[in-house]
Automatic annotation (TrEMBL):
<dbReference type="InterPro" id="IPR032816">
    <property type="entry name" value="VTT_dom"/>
</dbReference>
<feature type="transmembrane region" description="Helical">
    <location>
        <begin position="201"/>
        <end position="223"/>
    </location>
</feature>
<feature type="transmembrane region" description="Helical">
    <location>
        <begin position="168"/>
        <end position="189"/>
    </location>
</feature>
<feature type="transmembrane region" description="Helical">
    <location>
        <begin position="138"/>
        <end position="161"/>
    </location>
</feature>
<feature type="transmembrane region" description="Helical">
    <location>
        <begin position="14"/>
        <end position="39"/>
    </location>
</feature>
<keyword id="KW-1003">Cell membrane</keyword>
<comment type="similarity">
    <text>Belongs to the TVP38/TMEM64 family.</text>
</comment>
<protein>
    <recommendedName>
        <fullName>TVP38/TMEM64 family membrane protein</fullName>
    </recommendedName>
</protein>
<dbReference type="Pfam" id="PF09335">
    <property type="entry name" value="VTT_dom"/>
</dbReference>
<keyword id="KW-1133">Transmembrane helix</keyword>
<dbReference type="GO" id="GO:0005886">
    <property type="term" value="C:plasma membrane"/>
</dbReference>
<feature type="transmembrane region" description="Helical">
    <location>
        <begin position="45"/>
        <end position="66"/>
    </location>
</feature>
<keyword id="KW-0472">Membrane</keyword>
<feature type="domain" description="VTT">
    <location>
        <begin position="67"/>
        <end position="188"/>
    </location>
</feature>
<dbReference type="InterPro" id="IPR015414">
    <property type="entry name" value="TMEM64"/>
</dbReference>
<feature type="transmembrane region" description="Helical">
    <location>
        <begin position="73"/>
        <end position="95"/>
    </location>
</feature>
<keyword id="KW-0812">Transmembrane</keyword>
Length: 248
Protein backbone atom coordinates (compact mmCIF):
# COMPACT_ATOMS: atom_id res chain seq x y z
CA UNK A 1 0.00 0.00 0.00
CA UNK A 2 1.40 3.42 -0.97
CA UNK A 3 1.80 6.31 1.45
CA UNK A 4 -1.12 8.18 -0.11
CA UNK A 5 -3.35 5.12 0.16
CA UNK A 6 -2.34 4.64 3.80
CA UNK A 7 -3.18 8.25 4.60
CA UNK A 8 -6.55 7.91 2.87
CA UNK A 9 -7.26 4.69 4.76
CA UNK A 10 -6.34 5.97 8.23
CA UNK A 11 -7.43 9.55 7.82
CA UNK A 12 -5.06 12.48 7.86
CA UNK A 13 -5.71 13.55 11.49
CA UNK A 14 -4.95 10.01 12.69
CA UNK A 15 -1.65 9.94 10.79
CA UNK A 16 -0.60 13.33 12.18
CA UNK A 17 -1.50 12.21 15.70
CA UNK A 18 0.60 9.09 15.27
CA UNK A 19 3.51 11.18 14.01
CA UNK A 20 3.18 13.52 16.99
CA UNK A 21 3.40 10.63 19.44
CA UNK A 22 6.32 8.92 17.71
CA UNK A 23 8.36 12.07 17.12
CA UNK A 24 7.93 13.15 20.74
CA UNK A 25 9.16 9.76 21.95
CA UNK A 26 12.24 9.79 19.74
CA UNK A 27 12.91 13.44 20.45
CA UNK A 28 12.61 12.83 24.18
CA UNK A 29 15.45 10.32 24.15
CA UNK A 30 17.67 12.73 22.19
CA UNK A 31 16.70 15.72 24.34
CA UNK A 32 17.40 13.85 27.58
CA UNK A 33 20.83 12.83 26.30
CA UNK A 34 21.66 16.43 25.36
CA UNK A 35 20.38 17.82 28.65
CA UNK A 36 22.39 15.24 30.62
CA UNK A 37 25.44 16.56 28.79
CA UNK A 38 24.58 20.00 30.16
CA UNK A 39 23.94 18.70 33.65
CA UNK A 40 26.67 20.75 35.34
CA UNK A 41 25.28 23.98 33.92
CA UNK A 42 21.68 22.99 34.57
CA UNK A 43 22.41 22.09 38.17
CA UNK A 44 23.28 25.73 38.92
CA UNK A 45 19.61 26.61 38.43
CA UNK A 46 18.68 30.27 38.72
CA UNK A 47 16.64 32.60 36.54
CA UNK A 48 18.70 32.23 33.30
CA UNK A 49 18.36 28.43 33.41
CA UNK A 50 14.66 28.70 34.20
CA UNK A 51 14.11 31.00 31.21
CA UNK A 52 16.14 28.69 28.95
CA UNK A 53 14.16 25.62 30.01
CA UNK A 54 10.92 27.55 29.58
CA UNK A 55 11.79 28.53 25.99
CA UNK A 56 13.20 25.12 25.04
CA UNK A 57 10.24 23.33 26.62
CA UNK A 58 7.65 25.53 24.92
CA UNK A 59 9.15 25.13 21.46
CA UNK A 60 10.10 21.45 21.69
CA UNK A 61 6.86 20.25 23.31
CA UNK A 62 4.80 22.36 20.91
CA UNK A 63 6.61 20.92 17.87
CA UNK A 64 6.55 17.29 19.12
CA UNK A 65 10.29 17.22 19.79
CA UNK A 66 10.07 16.47 23.51
CA UNK A 67 7.44 14.84 25.73
CA UNK A 68 6.29 16.78 28.76
CA UNK A 69 7.57 14.19 31.23
CA UNK A 70 11.18 14.70 30.07
CA UNK A 71 10.80 18.45 30.47
CA UNK A 72 9.24 17.99 33.92
CA UNK A 73 12.02 15.63 35.05
CA UNK A 74 14.80 18.00 33.97
CA UNK A 75 13.08 21.10 35.36
CA UNK A 76 12.57 19.38 38.70
CA UNK A 77 16.18 18.25 38.84
CA UNK A 78 17.60 21.63 37.80
CA UNK A 79 15.30 24.05 39.60
CA UNK A 80 13.99 21.93 42.44
CA UNK A 81 10.42 21.56 43.60
CA UNK A 82 8.07 23.46 43.31
CA UNK A 83 9.85 25.97 41.04
CA UNK A 84 10.77 23.31 38.48
CA UNK A 85 7.19 22.06 38.40
CA UNK A 86 5.91 25.61 37.83
CA UNK A 87 8.35 26.23 34.96
CA UNK A 88 7.54 22.88 33.33
CA UNK A 89 3.79 23.45 33.65
CA UNK A 90 4.05 26.95 32.19
CA UNK A 91 6.13 25.66 29.26
CA UNK A 92 3.72 22.78 28.57
CA UNK A 93 0.76 25.15 28.75
CA UNK A 94 2.37 27.70 26.41
CA UNK A 95 3.32 24.86 24.04
CA UNK A 96 -0.28 23.69 23.71
CA UNK A 97 -1.50 26.54 21.41
CA UNK A 98 1.63 26.09 19.27
CA UNK A 99 0.88 22.38 18.90
CA UNK A 100 -2.79 23.21 18.35
CA UNK A 101 -2.03 25.57 15.43
CA UNK A 102 0.63 23.37 13.82
CA UNK A 103 -1.40 20.20 14.29
CA UNK A 104 -4.52 21.82 12.90
CA UNK A 105 -2.69 23.01 9.79
CA UNK A 106 -1.19 19.59 9.12
CA UNK A 107 -4.31 17.59 9.96
CA UNK A 108 -6.43 19.64 7.57
CA UNK A 109 -10.24 19.89 7.47
CA UNK A 110 -10.95 16.16 7.36
CA UNK A 111 -12.07 15.77 10.98
CA UNK A 112 -15.70 14.97 10.17
CA UNK A 113 -14.86 12.16 7.77
CA UNK A 114 -12.28 10.86 10.24
CA UNK A 115 -14.87 10.95 13.03
CA UNK A 116 -17.16 8.71 10.99
CA UNK A 117 -14.35 6.20 10.63
CA UNK A 118 -13.29 6.34 14.31
CA UNK A 119 -16.53 7.15 16.18
CA UNK A 120 -15.28 6.16 19.63
CA UNK A 121 -12.28 8.44 19.32
CA UNK A 122 -14.48 11.31 18.18
CA UNK A 123 -17.19 11.06 20.84
CA UNK A 124 -15.44 12.96 23.63
CA UNK A 125 -14.02 15.55 21.22
CA UNK A 126 -17.50 16.30 19.91
CA UNK A 127 -18.74 16.58 23.49
CA UNK A 128 -15.97 19.06 24.30
CA UNK A 129 -16.64 21.10 21.17
CA UNK A 130 -20.36 21.39 21.84
CA UNK A 131 -20.02 22.18 25.54
CA UNK A 132 -19.89 25.57 27.25
CA UNK A 133 -16.48 27.19 27.73
CA UNK A 134 -16.27 26.12 31.37
CA UNK A 135 -17.37 22.55 30.70
CA UNK A 136 -15.11 22.27 27.66
CA UNK A 137 -12.06 23.32 29.70
CA UNK A 138 -12.98 20.84 32.42
CA UNK A 139 -13.30 17.99 29.90
CA UNK A 140 -9.97 18.93 28.29
CA UNK A 141 -8.42 18.83 31.75
CA UNK A 142 -9.73 15.32 32.33
CA UNK A 143 -8.44 14.21 28.94
CA UNK A 144 -5.02 15.72 29.75
CA UNK A 145 -4.98 13.98 33.10
CA UNK A 146 -4.94 10.59 31.41
CA UNK A 147 -1.39 9.43 30.57
CA UNK A 148 -2.84 7.11 27.90
CA UNK A 149 -3.34 9.91 25.35
CA UNK A 150 -0.01 11.53 24.32
CA UNK A 151 0.37 15.29 24.76
CA UNK A 152 1.05 16.03 21.08
CA UNK A 153 -1.77 13.79 19.89
CA UNK A 154 -4.21 15.64 22.14
CA UNK A 155 -3.13 18.95 20.60
CA UNK A 156 -3.82 17.63 17.10
CA UNK A 157 -7.11 16.07 18.18
CA UNK A 158 -8.34 19.33 19.72
CA UNK A 159 -7.34 21.32 16.64
CA UNK A 160 -9.01 18.86 14.26
CA UNK A 161 -12.30 19.26 16.13
CA UNK A 162 -11.88 23.02 16.56
CA UNK A 163 -12.05 22.99 20.35
CA UNK A 164 -12.12 26.59 21.59
CA UNK A 165 -8.55 27.70 22.16
CA UNK A 166 -9.17 29.48 25.46
CA UNK A 167 -10.85 26.48 27.05
CA UNK A 168 -8.17 24.23 25.55
CA UNK A 169 -5.34 26.24 27.15
CA UNK A 170 -6.73 26.50 30.67
CA UNK A 171 -7.96 22.91 30.54
CA UNK A 172 -4.45 21.85 29.54
CA UNK A 173 -2.95 23.63 32.56
CA UNK A 174 -5.55 22.08 34.86
CA UNK A 175 -5.08 18.53 33.59
CA UNK A 176 -1.30 18.55 33.29
CA UNK A 177 -0.65 20.02 36.73
CA UNK A 178 -0.75 16.72 38.70
CA UNK A 179 1.34 14.86 36.11
CA UNK A 180 3.94 17.59 35.83
CA UNK A 181 4.18 17.99 39.60
CA UNK A 182 4.66 14.26 40.16
CA UNK A 183 7.46 13.93 37.60
CA UNK A 184 9.15 17.19 38.67
CA UNK A 185 9.16 15.97 42.27
CA UNK A 186 10.80 12.76 41.06
CA UNK A 187 13.45 14.78 39.23
CA UNK A 188 14.07 16.99 42.25
CA UNK A 189 14.86 13.89 44.29
CA UNK A 190 17.61 12.71 41.93
CA UNK A 191 21.15 13.36 43.12
CA UNK A 192 22.55 13.43 39.60
CA UNK A 193 21.02 13.64 36.14
CA UNK A 194 22.92 10.57 34.96
CA UNK A 195 22.66 6.82 35.00
CA UNK A 196 26.35 5.94 34.92
CA UNK A 197 26.79 5.07 38.60
CA UNK A 198 25.79 1.64 39.96
CA UNK A 199 22.22 1.62 41.10
CA UNK A 200 21.30 4.73 39.14
CA UNK A 201 18.96 2.94 36.79
CA UNK A 202 17.53 0.84 39.58
CA UNK A 203 16.52 3.72 41.82
CA UNK A 204 15.17 5.69 38.90
CA UNK A 205 13.16 2.66 37.76
CA UNK A 206 11.61 2.34 41.22
CA UNK A 207 10.71 6.03 41.25
CA UNK A 208 9.33 5.93 37.73
CA UNK A 209 7.28 2.81 38.48
CA UNK A 210 5.73 4.46 41.53
CA UNK A 211 5.05 7.66 39.59
CA UNK A 212 3.50 5.78 36.66
CA UNK A 213 1.28 3.82 39.02
CA UNK A 214 -0.03 7.02 40.57
CA UNK A 215 -0.53 8.70 37.20
CA UNK A 216 -2.33 5.76 35.66
CA UNK A 217 -4.56 5.53 38.72
CA UNK A 218 -5.43 9.20 38.28
CA UNK A 219 -5.92 8.63 34.55
CA UNK A 220 -8.31 5.77 35.20
CA UNK A 221 -10.36 8.02 37.45
CA UNK A 222 -10.30 10.74 34.76
CA UNK A 223 -11.50 8.38 32.04
CA UNK A 224 -14.35 7.12 34.19
CA UNK A 225 -15.30 10.70 35.01
CA UNK A 226 -15.28 11.53 31.29
CA UNK A 227 -17.66 8.66 30.64
CA UNK A 228 -20.11 10.21 33.06
CA UNK A 229 -19.65 13.85 32.03
CA UNK A 230 -19.51 13.58 28.23
CA UNK A 231 -23.05 14.03 26.89
CA UNK A 232 -24.56 11.16 24.95
CA UNK A 233 -24.69 13.15 21.72
CA UNK A 234 -23.79 10.25 19.47
CA UNK A 235 -24.74 6.58 19.72
CA UNK A 236 -21.06 5.70 19.97
CA UNK A 237 -20.18 7.99 22.87
CA UNK A 238 -18.51 5.21 24.81
CA UNK A 239 -15.09 4.93 26.47
CA UNK A 240 -13.02 8.02 25.55
CA UNK A 241 -10.03 6.35 23.97
CA UNK A 242 -9.55 9.33 21.68
CA UNK A 243 -6.02 9.08 20.38
CA UNK A 244 -5.61 5.37 20.81
CA UNK A 245 -8.67 4.50 18.70
CA UNK A 246 -7.49 6.92 16.05
CA UNK A 247 -4.12 5.36 15.47
CA UNK A 248 -5.10 1.72 15.78
Amino acid sequence: MSTKQTIRELGRPAVIMFMAAVLAGLGGAVALGVLIGWSDELRDGGLPIAVMLLVIGTVCCGLWLMPTHVLSLVCGWSLGFPVGAAVALLAATLASPLGYVVGGKLAGPGALAWAEKYPKGAAVCEAITRSSAWRAGWLVGLLRLSPVVPYGATNVLAAAFRVRLGAFIWGTALGLAPRVAAVAALGAGLEKLEMTKPGGWGWLAVGVAATVLVLFSMGWVALNTLRRLAPEQTPTAQAPQAAMDAVQ
